[in-house]
Amino acid sequence: MSGGQQKNAKLIDKDGEEERCKEGEEQTSEKAEEQRCKKGEEQTCQKGEEQTCEKGEEQRCKEGEEQTCQKGEEQTCQKGEEQRCKEPKPKATPAIDWKAKCEREWKLSDKGISTPDSLDWQCIYGKKPFGRNLLKSPNPEGLSTSVPPPQPSELEPPPMQPLEEIGDFSGWQVTTEHIPVDTSGIPPGVVVCYLPNYSWSIKEQCVDLKAEGLWEELLDSYQPDIFILDWYEDSKLDKHVFELHIKLLAEDQKTVIKEFSHAPENKMSGDTKNWICVSHIFKNYGPGVRYIHFLHKSKDLFVVGFHRTRITNSTVFVQLRD
Asked: Domain named FBA: which ranges (predicted)?
């Protein structure tokens, strides 16, 4: 090879080497750049994701808390507890001393009435045993003593009806006692078209004093007054149209400690039919009373229609003395 050729070959080699170096450097640079990019991207992604996650989590937490609070507040408010949404919970109300409340309102200590701790004073207070009518359905027909008893129609005789169809007699035990027809005053051979056919309508019920809120120490030692009232119609169907029988019974509901009976005789004259009141007060009746048996009888007449003697505003109540 000549000198010129050798020189040209060196130039070519040098140029080729430079191109290879450039290509190698570019490849190396590109590879390094890719590695740096990947590493940088991974780091950036990891850091960015962590930051994004932390930031997103905080936002989600805040949003979730706000949504939860808003939803919880709405649900709470929808339940009628708006006050709890706006204001802090009030302090718990102190427990009521029911025994002290009963003693204070009814002045039990002033009257010397025993008040055992073993009794359920909240239950006793809720039943309000004093001055309350202890009878069930005391006015079954809804009649008022301030208005005269209803008069039968003169055009059509009143029909006979069961009491259950006339009013609400729940709580009463109702029976009928037929009275034999009295023919002793009819002369022999005399024909009578219509004979008066009488019957008693009997209604009764038993009052459990302890179940109504009274207690043994009160009934046995203090013995509060027991008031009885009843109103009956002066129906003029007969001389005797009403009877009242009251018994104060012991625990066995058989032993009679005190009783009261009343069977008035009314005048047959006059056309005015009014209400008549019968009353009685049991005082100092003795220990052991647990029940009150209340029974009244009203006389009915069947002759050319059915005629009744009505009763209303039957009352039994217990009262403390002043």
From this structure: 124-320
